[in-house]
Amino acid sequence: MRQILDLLLRALLVLAGAALLTFTLLWHAPGDPATTIAVARYDSVVSQEIIAQIRAEAGLDAGYWTAFRHWVTPLLAGDLGNSAVSGRPIWPEMRTAMALTAPLALSGLLIGLGLSIPLAMLAVRHPGGWVDRGAVAVASLGAAMPAYWLALLLILLFAVKLLWLPAMGTGSARHLILPALTLGLGTAAALTRILRSALLEARGAPFLPALARRGVQRRERALSHIAPHAAIPVLTVAGLELAFLLEGTVMVEVIFARPGLGGFLIHAIQARDFPKVQAVVLLIALVFVVVNLLTDLLYQLVDPRIGESDA
Amino acid sequence: MRELRPVLIVAGLLAALALFGPALAPNAPNAIDIPNRLAAPGGQYPLGTDAMGRCILSRLLHGASWSLGLAFLVSTIGLVTGTLIGLSAAMGGRRIDWVVMRVTDIFLAFPDLVAAVVIAGVLGAGTGSLIFALSATGWMRYARVTRGIGLGLAKRGHVVQARLAGLSPAAIARWHYLPALAPSLTVVWTGMLARAILGISALGFLGFGVQPPTPEWGTMLLDARVHMRSTPLQMIWPGGAVVLCVLAINLTGDILRDALTERTEPA
Amino acid sequence: MLTVETLTVTRGGRTVLRDVNLTLAPGRTLAVLGQSGAGKSTLVASVLGLLRPDHGQVRWNGAPLPRGAAALVMQEPRAAFNPRLTLRRSVQEPLRARRLPDDPVRLARLCRGLELPPESLDRLPGQVSIGQAQRAGVLRALIAAPPLILFDEPLSALDAMTQKHTARMISELQREEGFAALVVTHDLGYAAAHADAIAVLRAGQIEETAETATFFAAPQSAYGRSLVEAAVSLGALGRQTAA
């Protein structure tokens, strides 16, 4: 119980630190934000008065801590603030973007799991056999392949050469196939390696021969003894995989011109719309920290002996 | 240190490519030859030309010194800062350890490529921002590994003896920590070098990294993408170069890790 | 002169040492006797300044122990050496740390006293015998001529023959060098043969302190008596004292 509380407190601390870090980076960004906003809004040369007005309005004339408080206080109540460029609230726009990102990330994850689990299980049936070697080779290649290049290759094959699928945009479910495949193949490559070594390690556990002698059936052994044992390393890496998925989503959305969270972030950076950048970064950090917290908690459920020693 | 040999060989080959690649280029990387734009491989241009008639092979070879050279730089900056931070946590007592590890957690709260994109984008596109962005997001793994091994070392007899003798913390780190850390840090370094190559080209591809007309592999891919329909090969080369380098590094990293786990397992 | 005053150490809510008082003059040997878990290692760490006591203090001639004034000979000879450095490098570390010059004459004399072949110093810790490694450990403790040396179960990793021999060499060198020796051990035979005074440590507290002869003739505490009786019935005392 103490450990769970500890984990929760630590996650909160990390989130607070992440917010401060994000804010600090943007506060120290080069260029005068008020001028940037003015140019973005009025798209021409603007007078000093307008710039001063914008500066006051956005709370930019206050000091660092005041500005931080102005941002964080509404944030705690769930208000992400307004876009510096359009002046409109960020949340509705971001929700629309997320509605496009979620199915992509989810289908990418499903493809990743759907490919890696059978592949890893086939591979470990005969460790060192040709299936195993092939799986490792494909997974290594996949892990070395940048998401944007894989995406371009898929576009080249399916959209340009074969004309089976649309290359860009969001119109239909068919638009989702190539982005999801890009994300899924990358995820599958990473997961296969992890699953394979986890299964191998679990299979080599010293208690298994004893179970076999006691007459525990092969299927039974696999399900109730090997699987939980393999779950631990898989859980640890699940958090890291999420990073890959989030990164991959950003890249994939940009390449396939999907106006999801990734595209939202890149456009916000290009427009120097810092409130938007802050909102997206913090959301990603939130997802990341929560998933890491969940894996830590699951970890403790699976194996309560693992304590806080590893910080 | 025999286990380190494959890593050293591959790293040496890549370093050689970064250093001497440009010297092997048949043409100037930025020489524009409009009449020969988007030319097929052969003749004066072994791999053809891009949309401005620049020699793709030459740009690829010059790109090696940017893509790989920057990757070496960034991963080494991460190695040095991360190791120093990890050592300060391991050697500085419980309070410093706590603070340092929480700060590390905070930096780990962002997926590193996303963080690097934001930092590089916000600071303004360019090589300087790129180096800063990838270094700021690339030290945490070194710090964690160093700290983890370092805490174990602090209890070892020879470290206690060194402290008793009055050896300075720097000397203790140099003689008693770093040699024991070297193999594991090398494993982390191979992973981070691969990540740096991917990160540099990703940032270049997004337009936040090395700026055109500098021939960096990610930027080349960005150029090539537009002409995917007419000259798809142009897109294959820079991406393939990234994959080959990353694959080579990852494989040697795997070999090293396996060698290390085999060595420590019976103990 | 080493003085330990009202030393109290708690770890994780448990009192490991309670109100420990000890004195030790130069040239003398104090053996702290106790079973495992009595707090011997904590006592050593506190005297060396490796951990901060909750209460009390450790002084050398009335002042805090200066850096490098105390050396330690550890129980596990090989673990006490960096596996990647030659014994010579490790042995000279105390000199290097204080920027003292190497003293080949002294090194050769100490090597002779410890019967360490000089070429063994150019090997790695894993390449010499346990006995040689332990004598190299003593050599490292002595090299910078510290006024105080702590011995933490210095002989328990050695076999019986080597134990006796090593103990004699240490006593011999102590006569020449004049350092104060604080030995924590559970080995009554060793204490009887080589210590000037005995302190009995039990559950973190000193049960009694006495000159060695007095202690073995008439232990004052019940625990001290049981220790001596057990040792006598095993015949452990007679053999060692005779040697």
Overview of this structure, please?
The complex is a heterotrimer of chains A (about 300), B (about 270) and C (about 240). The model of chain A is unreliable at about 305-310 (pLDDT under 50). Chain A has 2 domains: about 1-85 and about 270-310, no CATH class; about 95-270, MetI-like (MetI-like fold, Orthogonal Bundle). In chain A, helix 8 packs antiparallel against helix 10 (about 220-255). Chain A is built from 12 helices and no strands. Chain A is flat. With about 300 residues, chain A is mainly α. Chain B is mainly α and about 270 residues long. Chain B has one domain (about 15-20, about 55-265): MetI-like fold. Chain B contains 10 helices and no strands. In chain B, helix 9 runs antiparallel to helix 10 (about 235-265). Chain C is an alpha/beta fold and about 240 residues long. Chain C has 2 domains: about 20-50 and about 150-245, 3-Layer(aba) Sandwich (Rossmann fold), CATH 3.40.50.300; about 80-145, no CATH class. Chain C has 10 helices and 10 strands. Chain C has helices spanning about 40-45, 85-90, 95, 105-115, 130-145, 160-175, 190-195, 210-215, 220-235, 235-240; strands spanning about 1-10, 15-25, 30-35, 55-60, 65, 70-75, 150, 180-185, 195-200, 205-210. A 6-stranded mixed sheet of chain C has the order 6-7-8-3-9-10, with helices on both faces. In chain C, helix 4 crosses helix 5 and helix 7 (about 190-195) packs parallel to helix 10 (about 235-240). Chain C is globular. The relative contact order of chain C is 0.18. At the A-B interface, helix 1, helix 6, helix 7, helix 10 and helix 11 of A face helix 3, helix 4, helix 8 and helix 10 of B. Chain B: This is Peptide/nickel transport system permease protein/nickel transport system permease protein. Chain B: Its main location: membrane. Chain B: It is a multi-pass membrane protein.
